[in-house]
Amino acid sequence: MLCPILCFLVCGCSAPSERLTFPKRPVEISRRGFFYDVHHRGRPDFALLSDPSGRVESVAYDDAGTGRFNRIYPLAEYANDDVPHLIILLDSIPYHSMVERYEAGGFRWCDPPQKVIPPFPSLTEICYSRLLGAPPLPGFVDDYYERDDHAQADTMWQRLLDGYREPWERRLDYDMSMYQSGLAYLHPRDWYQAELALAKKAFDQNPSRVTVVYFASASGMLSKYGRDGLQQVLDGVDQMCVQILYERQGAVKITLLADHGHNLKATTNVDLAPFLQKAGFHVADQLRSPSDVVLELQGLVTYVGVRTNNAAPVAAALTACPQVNLAIFQDGARLIVRSARGAAAIEQHQHKLRYLPIDDDVLDYEPVIAKLREAHKVDADGFISDDDWFNATLDQEYPDGPRRLWDAFHGSVVDPPEIMLTLRDGYAAGRKEFEKFISMASTHGSLNQVNSATFVMSMTGRVDKPLRTGQVLAVVEPGFVPSIR
To answer: I need a surface site. Which of 127, 201, 231, 459 has the fewest CB within 10 A?
Structure first.
């Protein structure tokens, strides 16, 4: 089914012609701040002035071009609730990359970036549904298997041709259509430049105080160009933010965040079918017999949903594939996390979670649990609170793993697969048709740190610690409920 979709996209239109008008970079950067030649006079006429710590504290204007600023507006003079608030949702920005940019002097009108841990799998639709308080999607991907109907359900055509917008998309003030998003993966640079201008236009025209915009083309930039694409995404959103600060005399609040990380590795697509066939299973489009397995494949990502009536042996067969990292499935009231090394279990009781190695410490949590025991944060039965799991594993290879995995099988989507599979960085499992149109320089989806951890940073002064994705909106804009469009 994806072949005609992709052919349709290839024959599609070019990116819109809209572009930002502000200079792409300052003509001078110094300890005093960032200086721009907005009117092309050959000398600076606008500046972001910094305090001794390097934080931007005011915007300044030299209207006559005399070399003196005749207007200066301190950013601290604007109260959060008295000025417009632009919330920018990027796609696929790893936390460490934004930290590096900030430490190099970028985005200094905001507070320092804080780490955000998304739900699992780390896919845009799942992350932003959680962020925006949207109801659960039917499945983790458009092309998912409906067990009750014994058939593949595919909402991609509906989104592509009929203009259907998922619930989280209807809570945005600007985003691209599914059709445009597909085109953006083919020509991401042109589309991203257009999106910057179109999102700014949506902000300028929005009568509401809070505006939420989402850049789908940022994902295409990283997927196609890797680290270079990432830096171009940050350059572009920097340009947009500075233009807004210039036009609004600083009377605005801006919050930037992203949905998940990206592994920044060239990625090879893996065929999982031979490993299933070797173990006596049959890859099919329906579950007709006990040996049938349905793979929920779509994008070239490091997550795959697997439908089966025999979760444990299928998981064992898949983890024999050297490119597979983890296979997670439900066994009665507990989850099993399996790797090639062995298995561990996750259990819940009164909203606390317990992680128990069966024959291997798959997530390498035993040192973490030992420290929590020393701090008296493990109860008599081995259960640990959500906050303690989050704080203790924030910088581990699998951040907030117990809660993220548990929620993935318990309410994140209506019809979760029996097995959730993650692949090692450098590999993906998706539709082969996509390989004809893009060579993946980076991707995402799995449970590990680089695929998961992203950032939030804000001018509001409200973000001062790491957060889960579902907490972010209430922190940066308390009481805000996105309108449904």
So the answer is: 201
